[in-house]
């Protein structure tokens, strides 16, 4: 059973956080660097962007996560992505890790780094290294420290994104907490997002990676804001074992319970990103029911939430179901359009608008009332099998264009 608690990256035993204003962003006084530290070594797992153009921190972290046994720290900066920066960008990652190592007396290869912001700019290493020195002595295992770290990694996000839960494993309380950032350039495989999960669970590294990869495929790879995939996308999971549960080394009941907790955290963080899409006014969810295969279900659900015409209709509170049926039709997945049922649902109620591919005699007034809430759910039942999938996006608004027209200025 998953128990939801108030927390972020410091919720689990042994994790501390810090943040600082290093001066990376022009004309900003907001904190722009964050630090996560575990007092003991952590087994790690990670997933990363599939964009062939990937940032230097992605290269650094992949090498550490997949090849090193343990990690101790993560430093994150906003403002500059350290992407498309050549050898100088790679050297910057090493310099960061060396600065972390010196500040905390931990091995260089146990230090992870992440960046988000403008592509093509070099990291200001004087500011970065000074920021690391400033944060190291102020690391705290407090709720406030976690929240400040979540704020520091924001770019065009309008709010910090944190989730934490407790699960019971072999009679021990285990905590899983995390934070993420992301609002634009959000699309499956993955998105312009950074996500950091900390847990005091004791778990085998290979099983942690397997669980993380599978859950990311059903969470972060099922969200979209604008169809763009970034260069820096990273999910890192750190497990330090301080809950003293019996170490998970097989897919037993403890593994299932841990998986459920991690799935909740990653899915909720995914929804927070989709709902905070640049300029968005609501989270838009598509529940695809009864597809022939799991892959078909995922393809169909994602096709609906990535349709710009559908997203614009959601913004206008317009029950333009034809756009949804059209998006299902060009998805590439197999289904019979004459069997499809479509419903809209929100806090204002649930309404069937299509039955067997044809409009019902629904009330436009009632539909508008339902579509005026946040979140809005479209339920599409293709009645062709037994597989379901859910995807998350947001409405498409005037403000999305405004935000991205002057992102660098």
Short description:
With 409 residues, the protein is α+β, with helices and mostly antiparallel strands. The protein has two domains: 3-275, L-amino peptidase D-ALA esterase/amidase, CATH 3.60.70.12; 283-405, ArgJ beta chain, C-terminal domain (Ubiquitin-like (UB roll)).
Main features:
409 residues, nine-stranded mixed sheet, alpha+beta, six-stranded mixed sheet, L-amino peptidase D-ALA esterase/amidase, 11 helices, Ubiquitin-like (UB roll), globular, 15 strands
Helix-strand string: EEEHEHEHHEEEHEHEHHHEEEHEEH
Q: Could you tell me the radius of gyration in angstroms? A: 22 Å
In CATH terms, the superfamily of the largest domain is: L-amino peptidase D-ALA esterase/amidase
CATH class of the largest domain: Alpha Beta
Proper CATH architecture of the largest domain: 4-Layer Sandwich
Account of the 3D structure:
- It catalyses: N(2)-acetyl-L-ornithine + L-glutamate = N-acetyl-L-glutamate + L-ornithine; L-glutamate + acetyl-CoA = N-acetyl-L-glutamate + CoA + H(+).
- Pathway: Amino-acid biosynthesis; L-arginine biosynthesis; N(2)-acetyl-L-ornithine from L-glutamate: step 1/4; Amino-acid biosynthesis; L-arginine biosynthesis; L-ornithine and N-acetyl-L-glutamate from L-glutamate and N(2)-acetyl-L-ornithine (cyclic): step 1/1.
- With 409 residues, the protein is α+β, with helices and mostly antiparallel strands.
- It folds into 2 domains: 3-275, L-amino peptidase D-ALA esterase/amidase, CATH 3.60.70; 283-405, Ubiquitin-like (UB roll), CATH 3.10.20.340.
- 33% of the residues lie in helices and 27% in strands.
- The chain has 11 helices and 15 strands.
- It has helices at 56-67, 86-104, 125-135, 143-152, 205-218, 253-275, 294-305, 308-315, 321-329, 364-371, 398-405; strands spanning 3-5, 15-20, 33-48, 71-80, 111-118, 161-169, 172-181, 194-199, 234-239, 283-291, 341-346, 349-355, 358-359, 376-381, 387-394.
- Strands 1, 2, 3, 4, 5, 6, 7, 8 and 9 form a 9-stranded mixed beta sheet that branches. Strands 13-12-11-14-10-15 form a 6-stranded mixed beta sheet.
- The longest helix is centred in the middle third of the chain and has 23 residues, at 253-275.
- It is globular, with a radius of gyration of 22 Å.
- The protein starts with a strand and ends with a helix.
- The relative contact order is 0.14.
- The model has no long low-confidence stretch (mean pLDDT 92).
